[in-house]
Design brief:
7-stranded antiparallel beta sheet; elongated
Length: 130
Amino acid sequence: MRHTRMLLTALLPAIVGLAVTGCGTSAAFPFDYDIVWNAAVGEAIVWRPNIINDEARPYYICCTRSDLFGTEVKYDLKVTNDLNIFARRPSTRVHVSIRQTKPTRIRFTQMEKEFLAKVAERLIIAPPPE
């Protein structure tokens, strides 16, 4: 219980400090790059991604889904090193963008924030690396 409370305290600035930009929503997590990537992939796997690029940094996941009515939704996920020099180290930033591209352009900011909250939750639940 105490360990979980300490992790929640460590992740609180990441969850509260969500940045909403024109390209999507992002959050910084005080964990190593590969740990955050694994958590992000674990959450993004439900999208059934078309592209998973984990060979060159930044790691990237892309998915485009359409339904019978012609509605097309594009999911983008990018995991990068946090460039903020004042951030605690290690620090990794996750950018997520979920938007409808057809028939009209709509951005789903609430779904982006929920995705980042689920990544943070997965990082809390995951056992620490040995």
